[in-house]
Design brief:
This is Short chain dehydrogenase. By secondary structure, this protein is of the alpha/beta class. The chain has 2 helices and 4 strands; from the N terminus they run βαββαβ.
Length: 79
């Protein structure tokens, strides 16, 4: 696991509101951004995981990536 900070998962992390939320929370939390492939400006303060929230398999793969890298505890999901 990379960090001892609590994990915050943010959907739409490359959008206007999502990226502002990432920047605000990154000082206190380990932020993981979920967003679609091809978004032009993923935030640098978070790990970016490509996820299509309309596809169950894509969500499963994204959660699996988070579990492998950070463990099973997520403090919060911001959607």
């Amino acid at each position: 696991m990379k960090t001892k900070k609590e994990i915050i998962l943010i959907t739409g992390s490359s959008g206007r509101l999502g990226s502002a939320t990432v920047k605000r929370l990154a000082e206190r939390f380990q932020v993981i951004g979920f967003d679609r492939a091809g978004d032009p400006h993923p935030p640098t303060e978070a790990e970016y995981v490509c996820v299509d929230l309309t596809n169950d398999e894509s969500i499963d793969a994204g959660i699996h990536r988070v579990r492998e890298g950070y463990g099973t505890k997520i403090a919060s999901v911001v959607h």
